[in-house]
TrEMBL record:
Pfam families: PS_pyruv_trans. It comes from the Bacteria. InterPro entries: Polysacch_pyruvyl_Trfase. It comes from Bordetella petrii (strain ATCC BAA-461 / DSM 12804 / CCUG 43448 / CIP 107267 / Se-1111R). Residues 20-261 form the Polysaccharide pyruvyl transferase domain. This is Polysaccharide pyruvyl transferase domain-containing protein.
Length: 352
């Protein structure tokens, strides 16, 4: 059966490029949130860079954009949309993101929009309501520029089969997965983290995971891990590939959606913050637990200090039965109840 052409979902998943599984998880999570309410929902799915100009205005009623970017140049560079925005039907951006290669408080406080992007985002918010954002820093940036915004969290956090379930902390680290950084400048630091994992979990089954297609620097990190007895996992592509995390006790790594994939499963995780996407997550009160500043390092001494700090944290969490993480899951549940559930209930009523 052909998809329902009255509904369009714009995906950030680059199937023809890196095949980043995190983007696929965002799309799949959003589809699950809708289909739990509208089981027959079967939209036309288009990559964000595809023009919508060829769509039939008399047919298309709704456009849903999980992970919609509110970065400078988002329209038309990241999301092509329509050449004439007046053609836009009902538009539902959700879990809005902001990309920047650096991190830190100054990136957020100094961020400014060019006139074109500012006018575009203000128009979107005025036409379709406050922009739901995946972290509080993005809400703050938009609000500072006079753009109405609200915190929604990342849609990948929400598995409604898990929402409200009690957190069961791991009793031991029998298995652990390390996710490879996006950026080449973290290779030396990553080597230190890998060695620290071996030192504290020598008997555990250890994995190194690719969340995107391998490139030169990710292969370098994987080779270091293999030499230390890690097993390789190629998880890019389908979000179903992440189901292997069901049977792994702990995540320690750089991939934001590796971290989120554990949290949505009601599992503990440690995130090394390497760019603004992860930084915003780490600065949001409900999701700050287990996040460590990786981007502020750079010297050999700083890179050597970080792994020890992470392992001390992990050991303390085992001693305390990961009690700090209960705040994370309480926050996920409360945001789901206060925003996500009402939002998707309303969206479902519009799709029926």
């Amino acid at each position: 059966m052909a998809p329902d052409s009255s509904n369009v979902l714009l995906t950030t998943f680059p199937e023809h490029r890196s095949r980043n599984v995190g983007d696929c998880l965002i799309t799949d999570s959003t589809l699950s949130l809708i289909r739990s309410r509208v089981p027959q929902f079967d939209p036309v799915i288009l990559f964000r860079e595809e023009s919508l100009d060829s769509l039939n205005d008399e047919v298309v009623r709704n456009i849903i954009a999980p992970g919609f970017s509110v970065s400078n140049g988002t329209y038309p560079n990241l999301f092509r949309l329509y050449a004439d925005l007046q053609r836009m039907p009902a538009f539902f951006p959700i879990g809005c993101s902001l990309q920047h290669p650096s991190a830190g408080a100054s990136v957020a406080s100094d961020y400014s929009y060019d006139r074109h992007t500012l006018n575009f985002l203000r128009w979107i918010a005025s036409e379709f309501g406050p922009l739901p954002c995946r972290d509080h820093l993005i809400v703050d940036i938009l609000s500072r520029h006079g753009i109405s915004a609200v915190y929604s969290g990342d849609m990948a956090l929400y598995d409604e089969k898990k929402i409200g379930l009690p957190f069961q902390p791991p009793a031991a680290m029998n298995s652990v997965v390390f996710t490879i950084p996006h950026h080449e400048r973290f290779v030396r630091q990553a080597a230190g983290v890998l060695n620290a994992i071996v030192a504290c979990a020598s008997q555990a089954r250890r994995y190194v995971a690719f969340h995107s297609l391998p490139n030169s620097h990710s292969r370098r990190v994987a080779e270091l891990a293999l030499a230390l007895g890690f097993e390789e996992l190629h998880l890019y592509g389908s979000a179903c590939n992440l189901d292997i995390y069901d049977d792994i006790d702990l995540h320690i790594g750089y991939r934001l959606h590796g971290h989120i994939a554990f949290l949505r499963r009601r599992k503990a995780s440690v995130l090394l913050v390497e760019d603004f996407r992860s930084y915003g997550f780490s600065q949001t009160w409900g999701t700050s637990v287990g996040c460590f500043n990786a981007f502020g390092c750079g010297s050999i001494s700083e890179d050597e200090a970080l792994p020890a700090e992470i392992i001390r944290f992990v050991n303390q969490q085992f001693d305390e039965e990961f009690d700090d993480y209960r705040r994370v899951f309480d926050s996920i549940d409360s945001t789901h109840a206060a925003f996500v559930k009402p939002y998707f209930d309303d969206l479902a009523s519009r799709l029926c």
